[in-house]
Amino acid sequence: MISNNSVVEVSYRILDSEGELLDQTEDGEPMVYLHGHNNLMPALEKALDGKAAGDDVEITLQPSEAFGELQPDSVQRVSKKHFKQYGKLSVGDVIPLRTEDGQKIVTITKVGHSMVDVDTNHPYAGKTVQFKVKVLRERAATEEEVAHGHAHGFDGESGHHH
Hints:
- It catalyses: [protein]-peptidylproline (omega=180) = [protein]-peptidylproline (omega=0).
- Pfam families: FKBP_C (PF00254).
- The protein folds into two domains: 85 residues, Chitinase A, domain 3 (Roll), CATH 3.10.50.40; 45 residues, Thrombin, subunit H.
- The C terminus is likely disordered.
- The chain has two helices and nine strands.
- Strands 1, 2, 3, 4 and 9 form a five-stranded antiparallel sheet that branches. A four-stranded antiparallel sheet has the order 5-8-7-6, with no helix packed on it.
- It has 162 residues and is mostly beta strands.
């Protein structure tokens, strides 16, 4: 059963309040995480607590429990040089951007000659979302995983990356 310090492998689907698919794990590429170490949204992790391989979990989360409320003042202007590796940019592109606070997923809102305006809200901010999760496997974490605060893969096949 899933509890603190369990390494858990799941597949999931995320739907918005109209039932539109927002995200899902790819076939053959489940998500692996260390339970009880703030690697998931707290409400989702709580819903998975005590579950076991083969269990299905469905939970609807409000914006404050999921990807956050929409922050209207989150548009920032960034030098175009930070986007060179992405080639031609278009309004609506969603890309990872390295920031002082680590990597953030941003949405391009305006492309100028030398500057780009980006919205730093998560693309699903402000949305009520439903998670449909299938627990595939779970095992006890190693001492190293607990010390590091994250899973190092499942049975070694997923590798270990910091």
